[in-house]
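Quick start: read one record
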Amino acid sequence: MSVLRVPSWATMGILTFCGMVVSLQQTLVIPLLPDLPEILDVSADDASWLVTATLLTGAVATPIVSRMADMYGKRRMLLVALGVMTVGSLIAALGGNFPAMIVGRAMQGFGASLIPVGMSIMRDQLPREKLAGGIALMSATLGIGAALGLPLSGVLYSAFGWTSLFWFTALVGAIFLIAIPLTLDESTQRFPGRFDVVGALLLTVVLVGLLVPLSKGASWGWTSGEVIGLTTLSLVCLAIWVPLQLRMREPMVNLRTAFRRPVLFTNISSYFVGFAMFLNSLVTTQELQVPTETGYGMALPVAVAGLVMVPGGLMMLVFSPISARMLNRWGGKTVLLTGGVVMGLTYLWRMFNNDAIWEIMLGNMVVSVGSAIAFAAMPALVMASSPRSETASANGVNALVRSMGTSSGSAVTALVFASLTVTVNGAVFPSAQAIFTANSLGMAVCVAGVLFGAIIPARRPGEMDDDGIVAGPAPAREVVKEVQEKVES
């Protein structure tokens, strides 16, 4: 199949919309959760697995698919992940029962790997002057899709029923399965080798053993046998996996690269920023939807509350090109710190200002701006300190760490909301103290993110690698290899 010659903006657009579909399908089902027990004839706890299943497969698939992209071809693995996600949407739409929904939602989780693989394709195909903008825009899709998913879900559900959510993602996925082979070349940057099957299996156990307790700990009990057993299993497998990866010539995750100071501290900072970004959505949703009798709620319907949150997602889109200019002018470290400071100060402001809808909307928007700025810097810093042979893999690990941050944010915030409550007309809601505590927690994790970001090795403003990414030089062997390739071509 011949590939159409498309301008760089079209390449950016295709990959960005792929990322947006991923974040959309992760949030589309959330407004249905109150109705799904009746629709599928299951308990509310069982219905929550429809979110957990996507989270788990996304966390597992992201590092594995990203590693395979470096080895077997980035466009190829992009299509594989997109195909699995699309088939999963069809299974959920056609099945009409709980087992089919679980299978479909689990398969949809594979779409999470599209974002780091898409960023690595941008590194290979975009011209130097466009790369920072592409990375910033791709990073912002996480927040844009999440913000747009809530109101879109309400519209589709009300107009066409619950299956329309899955038909929608299946249709969009099918369109991209046709468009990508026609418009994107397979990357010439490929580093074949032996895939680390044992490392992948151990990593799967580590992630499942850690994420399931985070997701289900509130309902199971944090001291329950299930939580303690799975966490112990995860830690044991982690203790086996780390030495194994360090000994392997072609490991699942190159920990030596991951432990480099720029990559390590960027990933740690990413964890806290991911935590703070997701906490923003949880707090804003409570403030907008709970009854006014709680002392802080606005009592808005779900659809209206979703519309109020849309500007936050749009701000991430608007600030993507601005973040790219900041990245090129100031460097990744400064941009990351700027985003963290903006988020932290906004959480401080929100602790004392949530008495009106405009204050809640403004707080949500400014936290989204800070998220967009910080998210633009993370992949740039990681890629610039990683060899080309590990571009997708390094991005995948960073995306995984951010996902761990959002999962932790969800679990900890749920614990805060469950611990500090108020009863209104027989129903239990988070109290005003819970919202104050959650905003305080948001400020604290932003401070932690800034502190770890501050110890990333400093770069001179404007210092770039050969791709135009703000960071230090590539390893010597990578430079030599690229020069040889250019001479041969």
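The two ends are 23 Å apart (CA to CA).
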